[in-house]
Inverse folding.
C-alpha cells in the first residue's frame, strides 16, 4: 500500500530522528502539525458535545492504540473509586470499566479494510525502533480524578513532556506511513477511564450528568505510576480477549524504559 502524501511540514530526515524530536519544542511541533492536536479520547466520543457538527464531518474511528494499565496499585485504586461510586449509586455498575480493560488511549485510527489493518500492523512493527528511542524515561503518573462533559469519570494522567512528545512522535510516524488517524475532538487529554455513563442509563435516569458527589472525595487521589512498556493496536467496540482486555490485532514491546 502506498502511503498517502503527508500534510505535515517537511522535517526531512530529521522528522524521524528522535534526537531532533527530543530537542524540538513540543508546542511548536503541535502548532506546526494540527493533526497532532486531535483528541484521542475514545471514551468521550459519545459525550454530548455542544458542537454536533463534528460527527457530520468526521468518520468514526475503528481502532485505537493504547497502553494497558498493569500496575496493581492503579488497578486497586480505580476499584476503590468504583466501589465508592456504586455504594452511592448501584445503577452505575454496568458503566464501570473492568480492571482487565483499564488503559490509556494514545490515538484513534480509521482502518476500514483488512488491507488497511494489515498495513497498520506492519507499520507499527516497523516504527518500533524509532519509538523506542523516544520512550519516556520516567513512568507515567496517574494522579487525580476529573470528568469529560460530566459523563465520563477518569483518573488523570499527568502530561509529562516526554510522554506528550512520544505521543506526537507516534502520530507523526503513523501519518508519514499512510495510517489514517481519526481523532475526533481537539486537544489530547491522557487519562484512564473509571466509569462512563451509557445511553441506556442516561435514558433511565433522565439526566446525562454524573453526580459529582460520587467522586468528589477522590479528586486529589494518587493512583500510582505506569511504565510505558507496550503499545497495543485494539479493535474499537469489538469483543474482548479471554483475559478481559480488548481484542488486539498487533502489539509492540519496549521492555524496560
Amino acid at each position: 500500500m502506498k502511503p498517502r502524501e503527508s500534510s505535515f511540514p517537511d522535517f526531512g530526515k530529521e522528522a524521524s530522528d528522535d534526537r531532533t524530536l527530543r530537542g524540538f519544542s513540543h508546542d511548536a511541533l503541535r502548532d506546526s502539525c494540527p493533526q497532532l492536536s486531535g483528541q484521542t479520547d475514545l471514551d468521550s466520543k459519545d459525550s454530548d458535545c455542544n458542537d454536533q457538527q463534528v460527527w457530520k464531518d468526521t468518520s468514526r474511528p475503528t481502532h485505537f492504540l493504547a497502553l494497558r494499565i498493569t500496575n496493581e496499585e492503579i488497578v486497586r485504586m480505580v476499584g476503590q473509586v468504583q466501589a465508592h461510586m456504586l455504594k452511592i449509586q448501584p445503577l452505575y455498575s454496568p458503566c464501570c470499566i473492568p480492571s482487565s480493560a483499564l488503559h490509556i488511549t494514545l490515538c484513534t485510527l480509521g482502518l476500514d479494510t483488512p488491507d488497511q489493518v494489515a498495513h497498520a500492523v506492519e507499520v507499527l512493527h516497523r516504527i518500533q525502533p524509532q519509538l523506542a528511542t523516544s520512550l519516556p524515561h520516567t513512568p507515567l503518573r496517574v494522579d487525580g480524578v476529573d470528568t469529560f462533559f460530566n459523563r465520563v469519570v477518569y483518573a488523570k494522567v499527568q502530561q509529562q513532556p516526554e510522554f506528550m512528545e512520544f505521543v506526537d512522535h507516534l502520530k507523526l510516524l503513523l501519518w508519514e506511513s499512510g495510517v489514517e488517524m481519526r481523532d475526533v475532538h481537539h486537544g489530547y487529554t491522557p487519562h484512564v477511564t473509571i466509569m462512563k455513563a451509557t445511553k441506556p442509563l442516561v435514558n433511565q435516569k433522565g439526566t446525562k450528568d454524573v453526580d459529582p458527589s460520587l467522586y468528589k472525595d477522590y479528586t486529589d487521589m494518587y493512583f500510582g505510576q505506569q511504565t510505558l512498556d507496550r503499545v497495543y493496536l485494539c479493535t474499537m467496540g469489538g469483543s474482548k480477549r479471554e483475559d478481559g482486555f480488548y481484542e488486539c490485532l498487533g502489539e509492540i514491546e519496549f521492555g524496560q524504559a
Remarks:
- Strands lie at 38-39, 63-68, 103-109, 140-148, 152-157, 185-186, 191-196, 222-226, 230-235, 248-253.
- The longest helix spans residues 72-88.
- Helices lie at 18-23, 26-32, 54-57, 72-88, 114-126, 128-133, 161-176, 199-205.
- The CA atoms of residues 180 and 213 lie 40 Å apart.
